[in-house]
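Changelog-adjacent note: as of this version, every example in the card shows the full chain rather than a window. The one below runs 116 residues end to end.
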Amino acid sequence: MPESKATAPVLYSYWRSSSSYRVRIALNLKGIDYEQAPVHLVRNGGEQNHPAYREINPLGLVPALVHDGRVMVQSLAICEYLEEAFPHAAAVAPRTNGAGQGSGALPRALPVRFNP
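Full-length structure tokens:
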């Protein structure tokens, strides 16, 4: 029987959102193929306020990542999920020995604040 292939993650984001940018960095550093679904935060009163997006993320925030039936919000939580869900891909932060220890290095490995 052929091996089933997992679906590519879908990242709902806005191009000027630093939180969305952080997740895009992690996805690209890990070499994960993903789909982008833009959510314009200004146009038409903010697409994050439309019912279709609120079904995905009731908080109406970006980014949101949908993967294998799961919806994740909050950029650092998404980045941690990517480390766990795609262990074969390059690590964004140093890996630790033992399950559930967490490295604590992820916030330092990715930009957490952007200044003009």
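Structural remarks: The domain at 10-109 is CATH 3.40.30.10 (Glutaredoxin).
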